[in-house]
Protein backbone atom coordinates (compact mmCIF):
# COMPACT_ATOMS: atom_id res chain seq x y z
CA UNK A 1 0.00 0.00 0.00
CA UNK A 2 1.37 3.42 -0.97
CA UNK A 3 1.02 5.04 2.44
CA UNK A 4 2.97 8.18 1.51
CA UNK A 5 0.89 8.70 -1.63
CA UNK A 6 -2.35 8.30 0.33
CA UNK A 7 -1.15 10.77 2.97
CA UNK A 8 -0.10 13.32 0.37
CA UNK A 9 -3.47 12.85 -1.36
CA UNK A 10 -5.26 13.61 1.92
CA UNK A 11 -3.17 16.78 2.34
CA UNK A 12 -4.04 17.88 -1.21
CA UNK A 13 -7.75 17.35 -0.46
CA UNK A 14 -7.39 19.53 2.67
CA UNK A 15 -5.88 22.30 0.57
CA UNK A 16 -8.74 22.01 -1.94
CA UNK A 17 -11.35 22.19 0.84
CA UNK A 18 -9.58 25.19 2.36
CA UNK A 19 -9.66 27.08 -0.94
CA UNK A 20 -13.23 26.15 -1.89
CA UNK A 21 -15.88 28.22 -0.05
CA UNK A 22 -18.82 26.92 -2.08
CA UNK A 23 -21.67 24.76 -0.85
CA UNK A 24 -21.02 24.91 2.91
CA UNK A 25 -24.16 25.17 5.05
CA UNK A 26 -23.88 26.47 8.60
CA UNK A 27 -25.19 24.16 11.31
CA UNK A 28 -23.71 25.41 14.59
CA UNK A 29 -22.13 28.62 15.83
CA UNK A 30 -20.49 29.23 19.20
CA UNK A 31 -18.01 31.76 20.54
CA UNK A 32 -15.10 29.41 19.76
CA UNK A 33 -16.19 27.96 16.43
CA UNK A 34 -18.46 28.11 13.42
CA UNK A 35 -19.42 24.66 12.05
CA UNK A 36 -20.71 24.03 8.53
CA UNK A 37 -21.19 20.98 6.32
CA UNK A 38 -21.76 19.76 2.80
CA UNK A 39 -22.28 16.32 1.26
CA UNK A 40 -19.06 14.32 1.01
CA UNK A 41 -17.70 13.26 -2.36
CA UNK A 42 -15.83 10.41 -0.61
CA UNK A 43 -18.65 8.44 1.03
CA UNK A 44 -22.41 8.55 1.68
CA UNK A 45 -22.14 11.09 4.50
CA UNK A 46 -21.09 14.67 5.12
CA UNK A 47 -17.83 16.56 5.40
CA UNK A 48 -17.82 19.05 8.29
CA UNK A 49 -15.80 22.25 8.47
CA UNK A 50 -14.91 23.93 11.75
CA UNK A 51 -13.41 27.42 11.82
CA UNK A 52 -12.43 29.38 14.89
CA UNK A 53 -9.83 31.60 16.50
CA UNK A 54 -7.81 30.07 19.35
CA UNK A 55 -6.20 32.59 21.76
CA UNK A 56 -2.68 31.13 21.54
CA UNK A 57 0.28 30.99 19.17
CA UNK A 58 0.21 28.46 16.32
CA UNK A 59 3.07 26.60 18.05
CA UNK A 60 1.05 26.22 21.27
CA UNK A 61 -2.06 25.10 19.38
CA UNK A 62 0.01 22.65 17.36
CA UNK A 63 1.56 21.28 20.55
CA UNK A 64 -1.94 20.38 21.74
CA UNK A 65 -3.25 18.80 18.54
CA UNK A 66 -0.25 17.24 16.80
CA UNK A 67 -0.71 13.49 16.20
CA UNK A 68 2.21 12.00 18.15
CA UNK A 69 2.55 9.15 20.65
CA UNK A 70 2.19 10.33 24.26
CA UNK A 71 0.91 13.72 23.07
CA UNK A 72 -1.57 15.74 25.13
CA UNK A 73 -4.53 15.01 22.84
CA UNK A 74 -5.73 12.02 24.87
CA UNK A 75 -5.89 14.22 27.97
CA UNK A 76 -8.05 17.06 26.65
CA UNK A 77 -9.95 15.66 23.63
CA UNK A 78 -13.04 13.86 24.93
CA UNK A 79 -13.30 11.95 21.64
CA UNK A 80 -9.81 10.43 21.84
CA UNK A 81 -9.37 7.67 24.40
CA UNK A 82 -6.07 6.30 23.09
CA UNK A 83 -3.66 7.14 20.28
CA UNK A 84 -0.76 4.97 19.17
CA UNK A 85 1.74 5.06 16.32
CA UNK A 86 1.71 1.66 14.59
CA UNK A 87 4.51 2.45 12.13
CA UNK A 88 6.55 5.56 11.39
CA UNK A 89 6.94 5.68 7.60
CA UNK A 90 9.08 8.86 7.64
CA UNK A 91 9.64 11.96 9.76
CA UNK A 92 6.31 13.35 8.56
CA UNK A 93 4.16 10.29 7.74
CA UNK A 94 2.95 7.63 10.19
CA UNK A 95 0.30 4.94 10.55
CA UNK A 96 -1.75 5.50 13.70
CA UNK A 97 -4.59 3.85 15.58
CA UNK A 98 -7.07 5.99 17.47
CA UNK A 99 -9.75 4.65 19.80
CA UNK A 100 -12.74 6.64 20.97
CA UNK A 101 -14.93 6.15 24.05
CA UNK A 102 -18.67 5.56 23.88
CA UNK A 103 -20.52 8.78 23.11
CA UNK A 104 -23.93 10.39 22.78
CA UNK A 105 -25.33 8.83 25.98
CA UNK A 106 -23.71 5.52 24.98
CA UNK A 107 -25.77 5.29 21.78
CA UNK A 108 -22.42 5.35 19.93
CA UNK A 109 -20.23 2.49 21.20
CA UNK A 110 -16.39 2.69 21.27
CA UNK A 111 -14.76 3.05 17.86
CA UNK A 112 -11.30 2.46 16.44
CA UNK A 113 -9.71 4.16 13.44
CA UNK A 114 -6.52 3.28 11.56
CA UNK A 115 -5.15 6.17 9.51
CA UNK A 116 -2.09 7.32 7.67
CA UNK A 117 -1.27 10.81 8.93
CA UNK A 118 0.91 13.48 7.34
CA UNK A 119 2.31 16.53 9.13
CA UNK A 120 3.37 19.50 7.05
CA UNK A 121 4.61 23.04 7.62
CA UNK A 122 4.15 25.81 5.05
CA UNK A 123 6.43 28.78 4.40
CA UNK A 124 3.98 31.19 6.06
CA UNK A 125 4.13 29.19 9.31
CA UNK A 126 0.84 27.33 8.78
CA UNK A 127 0.93 23.76 10.07
CA UNK A 128 -1.25 20.95 8.72
CA UNK A 129 -2.12 17.51 10.00
CA UNK A 130 -3.95 15.47 7.34
CA UNK A 131 -5.21 11.88 7.55
CA UNK A 132 -7.18 9.19 5.76
CA UNK A 133 -8.12 5.59 6.55
CA UNK A 134 -5.83 2.69 5.63
CA UNK A 135 -5.39 -0.97 6.45
CA UNK A 136 -2.24 -2.20 8.18
CA UNK A 137 -1.13 -5.80 8.91
CA UNK A 138 -0.23 -4.91 12.49
CA UNK A 139 -3.69 -3.52 13.15
CA UNK A 140 -6.51 -5.98 12.41
CA UNK A 141 -9.99 -5.09 13.73
CA UNK A 142 -10.13 -5.47 17.51
CA UNK A 143 -12.96 -7.00 19.54
CA UNK A 144 -15.06 -4.56 21.59
CA UNK A 145 -14.57 -1.82 18.98
CA UNK A 146 -16.50 -0.93 15.86
CA UNK A 147 -14.08 -0.07 13.03
CA UNK A 148 -14.80 3.41 11.71
CA UNK A 149 -13.25 5.12 8.70
CA UNK A 150 -11.86 8.62 8.41
CA UNK A 151 -11.93 9.94 4.88
CA UNK A 152 -9.55 12.82 4.02
CA UNK A 153 -9.64 15.05 7.08
CA UNK A 154 -7.32 17.34 9.01
CA UNK A 155 -6.52 20.59 10.78
CA UNK A 156 -4.75 23.76 9.67
CA UNK A 157 -3.08 25.95 12.34
CA UNK A 158 -2.87 29.30 10.54
CA UNK A 159 -0.94 32.30 11.94
CA UNK A 160 -3.11 35.36 12.55
CA UNK A 161 -1.57 38.41 10.80
CA UNK A 162 -0.07 40.83 13.28
CA UNK A 163 -1.26 38.89 16.33
CA UNK A 164 1.24 36.21 17.36
CA UNK A 165 -0.97 35.01 20.23
CA UNK A 166 -3.88 34.12 17.96
CA UNK A 167 -4.33 31.14 15.66
CA UNK A 168 -6.97 30.50 13.04
CA UNK A 169 -7.83 26.81 13.36
CA UNK A 170 -9.52 25.40 10.29
CA UNK A 171 -10.55 21.76 10.55
CA UNK A 172 -12.28 19.25 8.31
CA UNK A 173 -13.92 16.10 9.67
CA UNK A 174 -15.19 13.37 7.34
CA UNK A 175 -15.94 10.18 9.21
CA UNK A 176 -17.95 7.04 8.63
CA UNK A 177 -18.61 5.83 12.17
CA UNK A 178 -19.46 2.33 10.96
CA UNK A 179 -22.03 0.11 12.66
CA UNK A 180 -25.76 0.70 12.37
CA UNK A 181 -26.44 4.18 13.65
CA UNK A 182 -29.56 6.18 12.78
CA UNK A 183 -28.68 9.07 10.48
CA UNK A 184 -30.28 11.51 12.93
CA UNK A 185 -27.76 10.44 15.59
CA UNK A 186 -24.82 10.93 13.20
CA UNK A 187 -26.11 14.32 12.05
CA UNK A 188 -26.50 15.50 15.65
CA UNK A 189 -23.22 14.04 16.91
CA UNK A 190 -20.69 15.70 14.60
CA UNK A 191 -21.57 19.41 15.03
CA UNK A 192 -21.72 18.93 18.82
CA UNK A 193 -18.45 16.97 18.78
CA UNK A 194 -16.63 19.64 16.74
CA UNK A 195 -17.91 22.40 19.05
CA UNK A 196 -16.60 20.39 22.00
CA UNK A 197 -13.24 19.91 20.25
CA UNK A 198 -12.74 23.69 19.91
CA UNK A 199 -13.96 24.43 23.43
CA UNK A 200 -11.72 21.80 25.04
CA UNK A 201 -8.74 22.82 22.88
CA UNK A 202 -9.13 26.45 24.01
CA UNK A 203 -9.03 25.28 27.64
CA UNK A 204 -6.02 23.05 26.90
CA UNK A 205 -3.91 25.83 25.38
CA UNK A 206 -4.75 28.12 28.30
CA UNK A 207 -3.58 25.40 30.70
CA UNK A 208 -0.43 24.90 28.60
CA UNK A 209 0.42 28.60 28.87
CA UNK A 210 -0.44 28.86 32.60
Automatic annotation (TrEMBL):
Q: Give GO terms: molecular function aspect only.
A: cholesterol binding; cholesterol transfer activity
A GO BP term here is:
cholesterol import
Pfam families noted in UniProt: START
| Entry annotated with the keyword Repeat | no
Q: Which UniProt keywords apply?
A: Lipid transport, Lipid-binding, Transport
Q: Which parts of the sequence belong to the START domain?
A: 7-210
Q: What does this protein do?
A: May be involved in the intracellular transport of sterols or other lipids. May bind cholesterol or other sterols.
Q: Which PANTHER family match?
A: PROTEIN CBG07384, STAR-RELATED LIPID TRANSFER PROTEIN 5
The protein depicted here goes by the name STAR5 protein
Q: Which organism is it from?
A: Galbula dea
